[in-house]
What does this fold into?
Amino acid sequence: MPALKTRFNYLFNSTKGLILVAIAMIGIVTAIWGMLSGPMAEMGVREVVIKLFGMDIVQAEREGRIIILYHSIAMAIVAIETYMVTGLLKMKAFFKTAINAIITVGYILTMIFGMGFAYFGHNWAFHGVYIFGLSLIFFAGVLLCIALYPWNKEYYVTDNEYAHTKSGFDLERAAFFATAVTTVLSALFGAVPGSFFGNGFEAFLAENVIRLPEKTTMEYSVIGHLHIMLALIGIMITLIIGRWLNFKGILHKVAMPLMILGTIVLNLGVWGVVTPLEPIAHMVIYVGATPSMFAALLLLIWDWNKLIKDGTAHIQKPNLGHKLSALVRDPLKFGPTWQMLFMNFTTSGIGIFMAIKLDEVFRVWPAREERIELTGHWHVLSAIIATIILLYFGDMNGFKGKLRQWYGWSIIILSDIAFGAVTVFEMKRLFVTEAEQQPLVNGLMYAIDFGLGMLLVILAILLVYRLTDLFKNKGRWTEELDHELAQEVNQ
Amino acid sequence: MKRIFLTLCLCAALLASCSPVDLNAPMPTFDTGVDSNAWVQIPAGEFHFGQHEDIESTEAYEIMITDVTTAQYADFLNMALVDGYVKVDGDKIVGFYPGDEFRGVKHEEKIEAGDWLFIPLNDPSQRIKFDGKIFTVQAGYENHPMTNVTWFGAWGYCEYNDSRLPTEIEWEKAGRGEDERPFPWGEEILRENANYYSSRDPFEDMSSFGSRTSPVGFYNGQMYDGYQTVDSASPYGLYDMAGNVWQWTGDVYEGMHYRFMRGGSKDTYDMDLRLWVRNNATPTYFSPGVGFRCAR
It folds into this structure.
C-alpha cells in the first residue's frame, strides 16, 4: 500500500508526474481517435476500432463529437502548460497545490466524461460532468491569475539581466499574467456561444461557415474563441520555453514588453469581432500578432546565439562549421525555437499568403478546399506546440548522450516531415489539378502518416519506459518526486 | 550504406508522387437501367431542413431522378450551338447570363450580364469533345454525370430545357424526404451505398488516378461484375443524391457571388455526403467532381 501511495503521490503531486500523466492521456486519445479519420478510415481501421471499443458513432453528430474531442485534448495541453508555469515561477505553495489539483481533476473529468458522452452513447450525466470539468479548469485559471499577480512586491526582481521596471516590477511575470488573464477571459468567448448553441444542440464547426458573409455574433464568438485560445497556448509555451532556457539580457528586456503588448492587443482584436468594431478587428489582430511574433523571434535569436557561444567557448576563432555544429549539438535546446521558426513556413507564412491572395486564389477554389487549408493550418500549429512540449519533456526526463540526440532529432525531423507534407497538401491546388492530384496526395499522405505515426511510436516507447520505471523501487520517478522545474532552468 | 538506402527510398517515393496520371485509363462500362430522362414529383409541404432540422416548406415541383449525364449535355450543346444559345470561344463554350445585383459586400465579386464560361474544352479531364462542328462524348462516359461544368453551364442547360436548377431547400427535400435522415437511404453509410473517396467502387484506383465518377443510378441494388451495390435511392426515388458528384444548386444569395453545391462527391469523405452539407465556389468554377440536375 505505501508503494502505491508513493507512486500516486508522484503521478498526481509532483510537476513531472502530472505532466507525464497528461502526456499519457493525450497520447492514448490521439492514438485511438487518430484511427477514426484520414487514411485509417480508408483502410478500414476505423470500423475495427469502433467495434473493438464499442463506440456509438452517429453520422449526424460528427460536429459535436469533434468539438468535445478537441476540447478534451486542448484541456490536457492547457493543464500541462499550467503545471509548467506553477513549476517554473515563484508562487505561494497553497496556490501551486490548489491550481494543480483543480486543473488535474478538471481535465481528467473533461476528457473521460466528455469522450464518454461523445463516443459511447449520450449519457447526459456524463455531459454534465464534462461541463463541470471545464468549469474546474476555468476556476484553476482564475486561481493561476491570482497566483501570478505581478504587482505583489514579493515577486519583484532586482537582477538587471531580466526585464523589469525601475521599481522592480517583473515584466516576464507580467507577460505570464497577461497571457493567463486573457486566456481566462477568452474562454468565456467559447463558453457563452457554447451554452447558446448547446442549448439547442446546434453544434457547428467554424471552418464550415467561414466563407459566409453574414455570420451571427455567436458564430463570430466561436471563430474568435478557437483562434485566440490556440494563439494564447502558443504564446504561453513561448514564455515557458523562455523561462526554461533562462532567457535574459537586452533581448529579454525588449521581448517582454512586446509580449505583453502583443497579447493584450491580439486579444482586443479577437474580442472585437463580436462588437461593432468587427470590420477593423482583423487589422487590430495583425497589429497585436506582430509584436508577439517579434518577441518570439528575439527569444530564438538569443537562444541560438547562446547555443553557439556555449558550444564554441573552447575554440578561439570558431568558423561557420563550428558555429553550426554548436547550434545543433543539443536538439532538445535547439528544437523548441527551431520549431517556432519552422512554424512560419507551415502556419504563419501560409496564413499571410492566404490572406494576401484570398479573393484572387483561395476563394476561387471551392469552400471544401479552403476548409482543408484552414484545418491543416491549425492542426499543424497545435502539433508544433505539442512537439515543443515533447522536446521540453525529453529534457525533464534527463535524457543524455545518444538517447538525447535520437529522441530530440526524431521528434524534430519526423514532425517536420509531416508538417511540411501537410503544408504542401494544403497548397496542392497551386501546382496540381484536381484530376491529376492522386499520386501527389498519396505521397504526401505517406509522409504525413510516417512522420506522425513514428512520432507516436516514440511517444509510446517513452511512456512504456516510464511505466516500467514506476515498478522500480529506485526508479527515475523517485528522483523526480521532489524535483521542481525551476531547479532545472538553464544557468 | 544505410544513408544511401534511405535516400533512394525517399527519391523513389518522391518520383512516385510526381508520376503522370492516365486520365483516360480503361474503365468498366455498365448499364444501370435507370432512366436519366425521368423526373419525379415532389409534393408540397414541410420537411426537416439542415443539420439542425429546421422546419421548411416547398411548393410541389419536379426534379430529375439522376444527375444530367454527359450524353444529355452533349445533346444540349449540339442543339444550343445551332440555336446560337452557346458560342465557341477558343477553348471554351460560353453562353449568356443576365447577371446578378451587386451589393458591394466584403469579398463579393460582380457578376455582370454577358457571356460566361459554360464548359472548358481544353481541360484534360473534360469528357465532352468538340471537333469544330459536333459535340461528342468520350466512349464509356455517356451515362456518367456531366462534370467540368460551371454554374453558368448548369444554369444554361436547365434554362434551355425549360427548367431550372433546384434551390438548396428543394434539393435537400428531394434527397431527404420528410424525416431527419442524414443520408438519402437512411442513417448510416456503407461503401456500397455511394461513390465517395476510397469507397472501393469498380471505377477507382487510389494508387494512380484516384476516384472517378460512376454511371448515374449505379447504386440501385444491382450486382455489376461481382460488385454488389445497395439500393440507395432517396425516399422520392432519386439516385446519386449523396456522392459521385457535387451538384450545383440555383440560389443566388444577396451580397454573395458564391454558388452552393450539395451532395458530396467521389473525392470527399463520407461526412460530406450528409444531406445538409454545403459546399460553394465561384460560379466559374468547374471540376471533375461537380455536376448538376434540374428541377421544374
Observations:
- The two ends of chain A are 39 Å apart (CA to CA).
- Chain A touches chain B through 38 residues (CB under 8 Å).
